[in-house]
Write a structure and sequence with these properties.
single chain; alpha+beta; 9 helices; 13 strands; 34% helix; binds adenosine-5'-diphosphate; binds magnesium ion
Length: 336
């Protein structure tokens, strides 16, 4: 006879297997995949391109709240954040793996809904779920690893910014933060659904980044923590200052209905828009505009990379109300 502990473990095991079975894809789409879910590890074969990989972890009540977010959207946003990192490297998404920590007494259908949300977005990119891990723990935690491919010499590093480059950004900034504010305060505003959608189901700019593939040099970074933070990451990596015009930062229609202070905070420091911030040689700017047009993405020139030694390299400067000031990051620091 089984001891009580062994019996309990069996129940947990059974549930774990059932769970994995429920989320396991029926078919795979990526031609390079050799073995997906079901063995000790997944296998794919890649010979002609570079492999790009990233991981992001989302903890309940830090990165998302089950009170303001539907399970589908939790999954969707978590994968979108990861895909956005691949886009910012110039890579084409191919695979993802999901490590999930599940609190006791979790509702199976809600967990499945999280995976459905991921699956919905993954389908747009023919991405396959090829593995993961399932454990129990105190907080619902989702850690996603993504894998993508990029042609040799076409990876888009932050350090590639050069003096004289144009600085540009896709889409409009601050919308996701506005959407979160609307949800948290349950308020009626103009374009309410638009802002909420931008928060719940952001669009990673994969197609746009792919359309830049003929350019030999572009520095890219995705806006996950706010443009102030992302611009300093490019400045630090490239060791060149970035100059940004505050009044050129694109915002959406009706963004101006919020207080001036909120507008400023959200467009500079509001995260999770998952737009791309980039720099390109001036001569290539028309090709960037072309790529934007082809992929139906708005692109706006907002500044330039400094070429004067008078500035403190590695810093971001903001032209605001006819003044030029260093822009502090003020992003969210998990270790502080
Ligand atoms: P092992 O004990 O060898 O680590 P597991 O029992 O953890 O294997 O997982 C069995 C299979 O299910 C593996 O292919 C693993 O990648 C997959 N898997 C487990 N958890 C998840 C998950 N949360 N998402 C996707 N695949 C998963
Ligand atoms: Mg395992």
């Amino acid at each position: 006879m089984l001891s009580l502990v062994e019996g309990l473990e069996m129940v947990i095991q059974m549930n774990e297997f059932q769970f994995i079975d429920a989320i396991k894809p029926k078919t795979y789409k990526q031609p390079s995949l050799i073995k997906g879910i079901g063995d000790d590890a997944a296998v794919f074969r890649q010979t002609s391109q570079d492999i790009v990989t990233a991981v992001d972890t989302f903890v309940e009540d830090i990165h998302f709240s089950t009170k303001t977010t539907e399970p589908e959207h939790i999954g969707y946003r978590a994968l979108a954040a990861n895909i956005s990192d691949l886009a910012a490297m110039g890579a084409k998404p191919a695979f993802y793996l999901v490590s999930i920590t599940i609190p006791k007494n979790s509702n199976l259908s809600r967990l499945q809904a999280i995976f459905q949300g991921m699956n919905q977005l993954a389908a747009e990119y023919q991405m396959d779920l090829i593995g993961g891990d399932t454990v129990s723990g105190r907080e619902l935690t989702i850690s996603i690893t993504v894998i993508g491919f990029v042609d040799h010499e076409r990876v888009r590093y932050r350090h590639q910014a050069e003096p004289g480059d144009k600085v540009f950004v896709t889409g409009t900034l601050g919308d996701s933060r506005a959407g979160l504010y609307i949800l948290q305060n349950d308020i009626e505003v103009k374009n309410r659904e638009y802002f909420i959608r931008r928060h719940q189901t952001p669009t990673p700019r994969v197609a746009f980044a792919q359309a830049l593939s003929s350019l030999t040099r572009v520095a890219l970074n995705d806006i996950s923590d706010g443009i102030a933070n992302e611009a300093s990451e490019i400045a630090e990596a490239s060791k060149h200052p970035l100059y940004i015009y505050e009044d050129k930062i694109p915002v959406s229609q009706h963004f101006n209905q919020f207080s001036a202070e909120r507008q400023r905070n959200w467009k500079l420091f509001g995260g999770e828009d998952f737009e791309l911030l980039g720099t390109v040689p001036e001569k290539d700017w028309p090709m960037v505009q072309n790529a934007a047009e082809q992929t139906n993405v708005q692109v706006t020139a907002i500044g330039y990379v400094g070429d004067l030694k008078e500035a403190n390299d590695e810093l971001v400067y903001l032209y605001e109300n006819a003044k030029l000031r260093p822009l502090t990051k003020l992003g969210y620091d998990h270790l502080k």
